[in-house]
Please model this.
Amino acid sequence: MKVKGNNGDKIVIYHSEVLDKEGNFYTDNLRVAKQQNTYILKGGGEEFFEPHFTFQGFRYIKVEGFPGELKPENITAVALYSDMNQPEHSLHPMH
Model:
């Protein structure tokens, strides 16, 4: 996520795999799993959030608290799967 805002602005990204019959964001099937990321801005310029040490399986996201207008270029999803090639520039090569 790419964002610009004020110190203390809080953004929450929720993840879901399905929508309900009316097309609304649906997470009841997740039971107690949160499937969310919270980012609090430090302010003072453009910031980038990329979760580390975790991943979410999702088809849809819901974003709350985004300062200003949320545009498609502010969000990038990265596909991960178990048979990925390790990038040559990785700082932590797999052994």
